[in-house]
Specification:
Helix content: 40-55%
Number of domains: 4
Radius of gyration: 29 Å
CATH class of the largest domain: Alpha Beta
Mean pLDDT: 80
Number of helices: 21
Number of strands: 16
Structural class: alpha/beta
Strand order of the largest sheet: 2-1-5-4-3
Distance between the termini: 93 Å
Shape: globular
Strand content: 15-25%
Length: 480
């Protein structure tokens, strides 16, 4: 038979009955997911190249065998779903199952099944579809491509430091240790936290988030630990907190640096003893939660200032991940631009091919105080305003168009060099703070490590505690 034949109405579009069988076979083997057909007894009738690849099997190892021998899963989950379809003749919704492949490895897959019927409507078995679950897709994204960069959790990069970080993420995720994510606002800390959970052994459990900076101290405690009826005015019934909601999964505590001292003590107990007490109760409640915390602040500096408990810092800082700001990896901007434009095209239906060279120049020179989130917002604005295939300067937000002249304009001859201005600015801030680097960094709106790096670059000596040693060797800050 060289052509697909059958009832036109049952087959779908009228022309499908005349499609060459070879073309249909190519389509069948080209889709990026697995397709398996079984007869009413569960014997495999056919499967496509995608299924063979996912299961790491040859045709000989799979064709004609019983599905239960090929789709070996935890507690027989896949077989139960298949039997339900064969028995009831109704499809089952997509579910995540973990299947042992031909190499003995456990592969998380999205599994769905539906009845297989002939044109007359008679059941002839079932058809199964298999697709890599999110956890596996995330790991696949870690494979580097020298031209396109590495990707993880929606963050693309060609930066060597970020590539190295991405390679260790599965190892970090599979442990059950606490993770501390450091990075400025908008660098992707929450995305990374969610990805760590999705790759972990707790992925079937809940992922619960609490933003400590968004809640006043009076609410943060009850939000985290819950409250019993009568614990405070208006508490007419028991209210579970985020810890209870995250039991068996992951609790992501964002902006941990904003947690007040009284709540820090309670969090420390949870991390040490795995128990907590809801407000209005003295009975300890056990909890099984993995902690992922994040902050844009300089936690070691807060510890040095006495604003953050040293013992709590050690508990949350078992595995540390630092996300650099976008201004430190501007080589990633072309990759990110294409990623965001592709995402907009998929979700909104309008395709924009790219940006002009002038737009890319403007985007590359921008400092991005809002980091990746700011770049994404800029591109969404431009995408909406762009009626053509290419984003031009006029499609950018007005404030960004105005800033382009700042870096395009020549520096007046009588203006001091930038290095001198920066050095004097940092020196004055150090003097105001008596040489205290942590306080100086906080005043300047940067991390302590960033301040130290700038001091070294500008030739400023690390200040003494009394703040007197502020001169630089080969100091670009002045010629006094």
């Amino acid at each position: 038979m060289d052509r697909f034949t059958g009832d036109a109405d049952a087959a779908g579009p009228r022309g499908l009955r005349h499609v060459p069988a070879e073309l249909l076979l190519n389509l069948y083997n080209s889709v990026d997911y697995g397709v398996v057909a079984v007869d009413p007894s569960g014997r495999i009738l056919t499967l496509n190249a995608g299924a063979l690849s996912l299961l790491n099997l040859s045709v000989k190892q799979a064709l004609g065998r019983q599905a239960e021998d090929v789709l070996r899963s935890e507690q027989g989950a896949a077989l139960r779903l298949l039997q339900r379809v064969l028995r009831r003749g109704k499809p089952v919704p997509c579910q995540e199952v973990v299947i042992e492949d031909g190499l003995g490895r456990l592969v998380p897959l999205w599994f769905s099944a539906a009845p297989l019927r002939n044109p007359a409507g008679t059941d002839q078995g079932a058809v199964l579809t298999l697709r890599l679950a999110e956890t596996a897709v995330l790991e696949e994204e870690l494979e580097d491509d020298e031209d396109e960069g590495a990707a993880f959790a929606g963050i693309v990069t060609g930066d060597p430091h970020m590539r190295k970080l991405f390679r260790v993420m599965p190892t970090i995720a599979r442990s059950d240790s606490s993770v501390l994510i450091l990075g400025e606002t908008g660098t992707g800390k929450s995305l990374l936290a969610k990805a760590i959970h999705s790759l972990s052994g707790r992925r079937r459990g809940p992922f619960v988030t609490v933003n400590c900076a968004a809640l006043p101290e009076s609410l943060l405690e009850s939000e985290l630990f819950g409250a019993r009826a009568g614990a405070y005015t208006g508490a007419v019934k028991d209210r579970p907190g985020r810890l209870a909601a995250a039991n068996g999964g992951t609790l992501f505590v964002d902006e941990i640096g904003d947690v007040p001292p009284a709540v820090q003590v309670k969090l420390l107990r949870v991390l040490q003893e795995r128990v907590y007490e809801p407000l209005g109760d003295v009975r300890p409640v056990p909890c099984d939660v993995r902690f992922i915390t994040a902050t844009h602040q300089d936690l070691p500096g807060l510890v040095e200032d006495g604003a953050f408990r040293r013992d709590l810092f050690f508990r949350i800082n078992v595995l540390k991940v630092e996300l650099p700001p976008l201004r430190d990896r501007k080589g990633d901007i072309p990759l990110l631009v294409q990623r965001f434009l592709n995402r907009l095209a998929q979700s909104r239906g309008k395709r924009v091919a790219g940006v002009s060279s002038k737009v890319l120049e403007i985007l590359t020179h921008h400092d991005y105080p809002g980091n990746i989130r700011e770049l994404e917002n800029i591109l969404e604005h431009a995408w909406v305003m762009c009626p053509e295939d290419i984003i031009e300067v006029d499609h950018l937000p007005e404030d960004l168009r105005q800033r382009r002249w700042a870096f395009a304009a020549p520096v007046p001859a009588d203006r001091r060099p930038l290095g001198r201005v920066q050095a004097e600015y940092i020196r004055e801030a150090l003097e105001r703070n008596n040489g205290h680097r942590c306080r100086t960094a906080r005043e300047l709106g940067m991390h302590r490590t960033t301040l130290i790096r700038k001091m070294r670059k500008l030739g400023l000596e690390p200040p003494e505690k009394d703040g007197r040693s502020l001169r630089g060797s080969d100091d670009p800050a002045g010629d006094e």
